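Milestone M4 deliverable, item 7.
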Amino acid sequence: MGVKSALLSPDRVTVERWAWASVVANTVIVLTGGLVRLTGSGLGCPSWPRCTDESFVPHRELGIHGVIEFGNRMLTYALVAVAIGTLIAIWRWAGATPFTRRLAVVLALGIPFQGVIGGITVLTDLNPWIVSLHLLLSMALIVGSVLLVVRVRPEAATPVPARSVALSQVTFAVLVVVVYLGTMVTGSGPHAGDASSPRNGLDPHVMSHVHAAGVYVLLALTLATIVVLRGTAAVRFAFLLLAVELLQVTIGLVQYLTDLPVALVAAHLVGAAILVASGARLVLAVRSAAKVDERPLATQSGDSASTQLR
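Output delivered:
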């Protein structure tokens, strides 16, 4: 099926691929945005929406930093293309629901809003609090994209204990706090994006320990979730989250002990995006499974009787 026909009359598999493309694209932009900061190119284009006050494109005097920053801006258009493709596919898909259509619209509108926040970071000389907001919005778009994948993908769900719903949600809430604390650590340390960029004034060593304390709580909650979900299909998503957490802990510890090498910081940044996606997937899996127990009792009894007759 070609691109044109897929958009005109997409099947469920095509729509799911577009939703996955949205997850990947929003994760890639996290990496490229991080590389802009890690290479000291955050003000390679010192203005916005133009690169300079006189030009939309970087000139030779801006050097490689201008090329890197401008290149990241251009990647936003690729993200816009994916968002538009996803939006069209969802709206043309016969199986779309009002919710999935609204979600696709929100994800599409989130891209230009993200661009505006990016422009504000430049105009404020990479204020670390605005930079953290820029990252958190990308994380929110990743969560929305994961939700879209789940909503367009049929999935059989087995019942889960009722307490697992609240536990998974608390785990995800702590995960979000941990990610935010990570942005505070970043905002207090090196790799500001430009030598003249301000820092948030917090002690990076103290914030690293605060961040680590949050990680310990997150690990404990994830292990508790695994125990509660044991024997259910949803437990595999809790194990996935734990695996990502352990990988992030390893990368974070090594980068802390080796004075934050660029490659490890970039890997840790991508890991944060995968962590958020994994946490969201766990919550959605548990919620979907919990709905199995929310059917009317008569329906459940009918299903049981039908099973016995077979």
